[in-house]
Write the structure tokens for this entry.
Amino acid sequence: MEKKLRQRAGSGKQTGESRRLLGVTYAFLGIFLCLMGYIAYFQFEKSEQFINNPYNRRQELFAERVVRGNIYSADGVTLAETVTDEEGNETRKYPGGRIFAHVVGYSGHGRTGIEAAANFSLLRSNIFYVEKAVSDLQGEKSPGDSVTTTLDYDIQLRAFDALGRYDGAVVVMEPETGKILAMVSKPDFDPNTIDADWEELTSDDAEEDSVLLNRATQGLYPPGSTFKLLTTLAYMRQNPEDYETYSFQCTGSYTKGNKTIHCHNRKSHGSEDLMTSFANSCNSSYASLGLTLDIPEFQALCDSMLFNSELPVSFEYSESSFVLSGQDDAAAVMETAIGQGKTLVTPFHMALLTSAIANDGVLMRPYVIDHVTDAEGNLVTQYQPRQYRELLSGEEAAVLQEYMRYVVEHGTAESLKSDLYEAAGKTGSAEFSSNTDASHSWFVGYAHQENGKPDIAVAVLVEDSGIGSEYAVPIAQEIFEEYYREEE
């Protein structure tokens, strides 16, 4: 009996040890599978991102064996190319010059724009491996792959010319696809002379003008009345049953405590509902409306609209900021509701929000590289439109679309009426200093053509110019007319 008990005790001990051993085996197996999964994820999803990192010295090895590929517009115009002389010296040329300076960027003294975003593709050669082997044996470089962008040369040129002598930015996108059709920033520079001009461009005087800064994606500005898109959405969400019966009597100003908000030129708009308040860009109405909002909910809405967060894009950008909190006083709330205060936004961000509204609430992931080909023109990679996420519901987008059309039909953007297309949008004038006569001019909007070309969305920012209807709207009009003009 005692012997049997000892055998059972021994058997129990072995069973416990077996379980522990099995547990350790499973743990190591799990770690191994996780490691293999991460390696696969890195290889197929993240390798290009790490190789494309400007601090990765592996790029220098690629550059020693590959001639940097070309960059083209969507319509086949060369925007960047590498020219090699008889001695084998390579020079990067930019036929698009100043027109595409910021969006295409430069390669030298670091890289910016598409030159940075597509660096891995431009330094990779997908020609037949035998040809590459022969080039290596002969000590010659292989031709790199070329990148064709989504940029439309004519739209980019028209936006560049329309902005004229003013500093500012223009972004043009296809809401349905996320394609970036144009991106202009001024002041500009000549990427062909970046090496010779570098010292001047980075001097203290130049830093003040921030010539190398891409104002479209990196310039932060008070949004002015274009922000009323978000204030309106916040009011609609917090008053789903009552927003249609909203009413306000505008006398040209609104005072709460020691703070008075004025309408433009102190104009009295009289009796207004929410849509006419929006179309007239009535500061008094929106200051009053802002005080009724639940501020934490307003903050959450703005965060969901990509404020204080990363944007779904692969090139350099600045994060927009919304910092209103429940502890702020009435003055801060009123200023924020009309797009002033501490709120800052980039033109590119406003283009994304406008695109989402035009696309029934869905934001497509923005992209500027359409496809990659090898030196012989064979397709290497084709990029496709991808949904990012729904920023607002289709019903909410429909209401804002109606309000934005009303701005063109009866409000501050009436000059956009056209028989060629139907436009919708929101103007804005954003004060940026203690001098209330100085303001940035804004317009964000989109245009639609029945049974015609895809819709396009635009964001226009004209620095230190005046009101949106006088400076930004005409630029948008030129872009719409260029895009929808009938082919001869």
Observations:
- Residues 357 and 397 are 5 Å apart (CA to CA).
- Residues 2-51 form the longest helix (50 residues).
